[in-house]
Amino acid sequence: MAPKDLAKAIIKAGIEFDQLTTAALRAGVDLQNTRIVELGKEKLAAEKRGAAAQQLAAVNGRRFDGALAKLAGARDHVRRGHAGRQPAAERCQMRHQIARQIIPKIIPALVSALLAGCTTAPPPATQIVEVPIYTPCVKAMPPAPAFRFDKLSLDAPPGEKVLAQASDWLLGRKYELQLEALLAGCL
């Protein structure tokens, strides 16, 4: 291939690469633009929902304020002493009417409740009370090991003493673990 043809092929390949890159970038920008449009629509919908919620809150607030105003008016009416005032004769007559209606209904219910209470007394039951009794948590101590070091004479050579201590260390460690296991059962 001639150098001139080679240069044309390189330029053509560069142009094709640039075209592919441009197409990929355009596709990415188009995707971003559609997502931005979708987000804008979602934002508008959220703003509409927020405005509706604010309107509902305002309506509920006005209803609440109205209820508070009625309550304040009722309190003022009671403070002034006007609430529920009726002439004394009417009050006595109402009390007698209420008593005539209620007493015949209350007396049989009261008598039946009292009688039912007397007949349904539970029989005395035996109650078991558990009393804790002290028992030692350690039933038996493990036997102490017979250490070789204790059997050595005072004038034993140092090497023999070191060997005895080394072998006694394992026995002592085993004894310690047995004691720890017993104590763990106590806690």
Explain what the structure shows.
By secondary structure, the chain is an all-alpha fold. Among the domains are: about 5-85; about 150-185. Helix content is about 75%, strand content about 0%. It has 4 helices and no strands. It has helices spanning about 5-80, 90-120, 150, 160-185. The radius of gyration is 50 Å and the shape is flat.
Quick tags:
mainly alpha; 0% strand
User: Helix share of residues?
Assistant: over 70%
Number of H- or I-type helical stretches: 4
Mind summarizing the main beta sheet? none
Query: Strand-and-helix sequence, N→C?
Result: HHHH
Report the structural category. mainly alpha
Q: What would you call the shape?
A: flat
Approximately what portion of the residues adopt beta-strand conformation? Answer: under 5%
Low-confidence stretches: none
Q: How far apart are the first and last residues' alpha carbons, in Å? A: 94 Å
